[in-house]
Structure formats: structure tokens, C-alpha cells
Design a protein that fits this description.
With 178 residues, the chain is mainly alpha-helical. The protein has one domain. The chain is 72% helix and 0% strand. The chain has 5 helices and no strands. Helix 2 runs antiparallel to helix 3, helix 3 crosses helix 4 and helix 3 runs antiparallel to helix 5.
Length: 178
């Protein structure tokens, strides 16, 4: 396998590592704020809905939390895209955002960063993987709580039915009185 001549000139720089580490740290800090905010809003809605709990309201809270998490991720991608635009690695804001989103989600795309910033392509994926794992944990916790509450409601309904006395037999229903 031959190595293209341009790749022979690439040397990872301390500047590139520093910017990548900083951007990952900023992404994680933003994500922390976003996840705490998402949980706070979700918990507030659960309290508001507590008096009139329903399956639909419980699902609505999870859907709203999902939308908030998506918004947090999209805002985090703006930070990376802004850096790529600022440092001249991408020619337009639109291409910069598209590239950042594709690499953040680890899909990749047809565009690449200039050789000088090539390491950041992997570092944005690292940041994306960590924040998606965090988001998954938040959603898992919320979904588990919702499912536990729903199963408790089902259990209480069954217990309530089991405790109700059987209705007396109706005479003339074909049953022979004892």
C-alpha cells in the first residue's frame, strides 16, 4: 500500500491536540449543562403531571426530553463548526456545520479537514461518542423510571380488582342456589 505524498508531510502538532482537547472539554461541559437542564425540566413536568398521571403524559415527558437532548447535541456541533470556520478549515458556515455534524455522529462525509487539522476529525467523533453515551444514560434512566411507574399502576389495578368482592349471583341466571 502506498502513502500519498501529502500524507507524508502530516505531523500531529501540540496546537492541534490542544484545540481538540479544548473542544472536547467544551462539548462535555455544554452537554453537562444540557443534561442537567433536561432532567430539571423533565422532573418539573413530572411534578406538574403527578396529580393526573397518565401514559400519554409520561411518554410526552420522554419525547420532550429527547427533543431537548437533540437540541443540545446540535448546539454542541455549532461550537465545532464555528471553530472549523474560524480557523479556515472549512470555506462556508453551511459546509462547516454539515461536516461537523457528520463527524460528530461518526457518519463521516465526503469532506475532510486540511492536513494541519486532520486529527480533529477523530477528536470530534470522540466527543460525539461520549455525549451520545451520556444522553443514552439520561434517556435510559427516564425510560426506566417511566416503565417502573407504569408497571406499579398495573400492579395496583390488579390488586384492587382482586380485593373487590365477587358480585352476588343473580337469581334466574341458571345457577342453583346453595
Amino acid at each position: 500500500m502506498s502513502i500519498p505524498d501529502g500524507d507524508l508531510q502530516y505531523i500531529t502538532s501540540l496546537e492541534e491536540i490542544s484545540w481538540g482537547a479544548t473542544l472536547v472539554a467544551v462539548t462535555l461541559a455544554m452537554h453537562g449543562v444540557g443534561m442537567v437542564g433536561t432532567l430539571a425540566v423533565s422532573n418539573r413536568l413530572k411534578l406538574v403531571f403527578a396529580a393526573h398521571r397518565s401514559f400519554i403524559r409520561g411518554i410526552a415527558v420522554i419525547i420532550l426530553a429527547s427533543w431537548m437532548i437533540i437540541l443540545v447535541h446540535l448546539i454542541e456541533v455549532f461550537v465545532w463548526a464555528g471553530f472549523f470556520l474560524w480557523c479556515g478549515a472549512m470555506p462556508t458556515a453551511s459546509r462547516s456545520y454539515y461536516f461537523a455534524l457528520m463527524d460528530y455522529t461518526t457518519l463521516g462525509c465526503e469532506f475532510n479537514l486540511p492536513l494541519r487539522w486532520r486529527l480533529l476529525e477523530g477528536m470530534i467523533a470522540i466527543g460525539g461518542l461520549m455525549t451520545f453515551a451520556w444522553s443514552t444514560g439520561v434517556l435510559f434512566t427516564m425510560a426506566q423510571d417511566f416503565q417502573d411507574q407504569e408497571l406499579q399502576l398495573v400492579k395496583r389495578r390488579r390488586q384492587k380488582r382482586a380485593q373487590q368482592p365477587a358480585p352476588p349471583p343473580v337469581h334466574g341466571s341458571g345457577e342453583i342456589p346453595g
